[in-house]
Amino acid sequence: MKILTGCLAATEGEVRIAGHDIFEEAQEAKKHIGYLPEVPPLYMDMTVAEQLEFACELRGLRIKKSLLRAYIDNLCARTQVSDTRDRLIRNLSKGYRQRVAVTQLLVGDPEILILDEPTVGLDPRQIREFRALLSGLSREHTIILSSHILSEISSICDRILVFYEGMLIADGHPQQLQEQLSNCRVLEVEIRGDAEGIVSLLRNLPDVLTVKEQGSGFYQVSHRVSTDIRSALYRTLRPTEYELMMMKPEEISLESLYLRITENEQETTK
């Protein structure tokens, strides 16, 4: 993250932001990014408004004093910190300080927001609120987020990059990563009727690999990635006495994906 934002020089390779080299054209490149490190750069003895005014000065924004208040009010409204505008930052909760830090990122309206471990230290309610905040901002900005809390990544991000010992080893949506690691998918179904007959019917569907009876009418059907068996299952069940109650693809956790990806990488480097 430090290399990406120009805080640390790279020993090789290059980073380009909006076509500008982050080291050769640092000033121009950094106009396009907002960076939030793990420890937010906030001054505890400033009010929220003073902190944002200071950020405007650092960004070199030329805003008339008569318009500056309205500009800051607009920023505060976007991140829902308007009610803290005149409060000292030291008196804010951890969650609100993090919101103020994100508000500061928006000064200058950069296209790219880069956040390093942004939910560390937040309680469950604050994390949920912060997710909603990032979700709203993602409609107008590209957000790059790093975190070791993998459940957080899967709930926020629509593209995931996995690094292992400094190397990029996987890139894609969680579903794409799963397909890269496996030749099968799992469909969870609930069907009412004779279990023996249902198992036989499921096994005869195209490209089904295994069928596991879970009890109480639930089954796990493993099938090839290349085939979506849901339509075939529905058509097959329709003329029978069996009653389809539920059908959904199994969701694999990002933690499981990460472990499988890194284990595969360890095997290939032995």
TrEMBL record:
Gene3D superfamilies given in the database record = P-loop containing nucleotide triphosphate hydrolases
InterPro entries for this protein: ABC_transporter-like_ATP-bd, P-loop_NTPase
What would you give as a GO molecular function for this chain, any one?
Answer: ATP binding
What residues does the ABC transporter domain cover?
1-190
Q: Which Pfam families is this protein grouped with? A: ABC_tran
UniProt entry keywords in alphabetical sequence:
ATP-binding, Nucleotide-binding, Transport
Recorded family membership: Belongs to the ABC transporter superfamily.
Kindly provide the name given to this protein in its UniProt entry: Vitamin B12 import ATP-binding protein BtuD
The protein's organism comes out as bioreactor metagenome
Q: According to the entry, what is the taxonomic lineage of the organism?
A: unclassified sequences, metagenomes, ecological metagenomes
